[in-house]
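Would you be willing to look carefully at the protein I have copied below?

:::
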Amino acid sequence: MRSLLCLPLLLLFINCGNSSKKSEEHHTGLSEAAAAEVLVKDSIQPVSEPETQTSVPDLTALNDTVFVRLADYSDDFRYDLRYATTNNFLKSQVYECPECYVRATTAKALIAVNEKFMEQGYRIKFFDCYRPHDVQKKMWKIMPNPIYVADPAEGSIHNKGGAVDITLETLEGEELPMGTTFDFFGREAHHAYTKLPEDVLKNRKLLKETMEEFGFGSITSEWWHYNYKPVLDLSVANFTWDCPE
C-alpha cells in the first residue's frame, strides 16, 4: 500500500456538509452527494506550475466511511469495469467513465486480501465497485427484475461502497477459469453448483475462502459478488466522479 500523487480524491463523510445542504437533501436520504460536491471543490490545491496536483491522504488516517479511489492506494489491482461499456447483461453503458471507488474500510480489506492472493501468484480484477444510487435507478429502469438488479427503493450494497464484483487473474494477466462469465444468471454461476471442471471448482473455492478470511461475504447465486460486512449498515450514496474531457 502506498500514497500516490494523482487525481483529486473524492472524500465523502456522513456528517460533513453544511446544515442547509443536509436539509435540502433530507427527503432523498442521500445527503452524502451534497457533501461530496463540496469536498471535491475544496480538495483541489495548486502545488506547482503548470500542473495542479493533490496529495492523497494516508488511508489509515481516514474515517472508515470515506469513499476513496482504489487506484490511488494500490497499483496491484486490475480493472474491467463492464458497466462503463456495453459489454454487460444490460447491453447499455450506465457509467460515463470507468472508476473504482469504495469506502475506506473496504479499500483496506481489499488491499490486504489482494496481498494474500499475490503471495499465491494471483491478483484481483474488478468488474464493478461503488455504484451511485442514480445509476442503480438507471439499471432498474432497463431491467426492473430483482433477480438481476437490486431494487433502488432499498438500494444495493454497491450503492454503499461495500460490494465488489471480481475475479482472479495471474500476475501475468490471465484470468482464472470460473465456469461462467461475469453476470451469467444461471445455476452454473451458483456457489453450490458442482458440475464443473475440477480447476474451476478449485478457483472458486480459492476466491471465496480467501475473501471470507478478510471479512467479505458471498451471495449464493453469483460467484463474483462479495460484500464487505462492516459496510452493510451504512446508507446508500449518490456522488459521481469526474470524467476526463
Summary: The first helix runs from residue 19 to 25. Confidence is low (pLDDT under 50) at residues 1-53.
